[in-house]
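<instruction>
Derive structure tokens from the sequence
<entry> Chain with its tokenised backbone below:
===
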Amino acid sequence: MSWRIVCLTWLLFAASTQAQSLFDEESWRGWTGDNKAFRAGDVLTVQVLENSSASSSADTATRRSNRLQAELAHGSNRAAQASLAVAGEFDGGGRTQRASRLLATVTVVVQEVLPGGHLRVAGTHSLMVNEELQRVTLEGIVRTVDITDANVVPSSRLAEARITYLGEGDVTERSRRAWWRRLLDALGL
């Protein structure tokens, strides 16, 4: 009778256990596979090289001259005469010009794999220089074909790119205009 209990116990144990594979499909990558980011949680290096410049100018010149004249005569004699003349001139112009350049290398994390295999990435790079915090924040969508073999993509290949560069500290604070000057500017004074 004991051999029946042993067989029954063995059958129940065998039925309740499941074999587990050492192969994990989520994290497996072949030995000859590349090191490019392709799934959520992977890291990717973005080389930020952004140059922007804008320039605009406007010249305006207006001239206006109006004249109104009235005369009242009785026979050959002038009874009354009135005259009104209005003239105006305006010359105006302006020019604005701005240029900026940002060079940085930011390592970002793949947040999500979108339909079509595109990767939504985001990351922040913070650097403290002479008690000034400098922060580059980057978000965007990367096509996997744009990623090099070294797992790097240039920022010019990001879709919906949002790149923010902020500085915090004494130098940044001193370069801002005073609150009262900004108020006067808002009032047009």
Remarks:
- The radius of gyration is 37 Å.
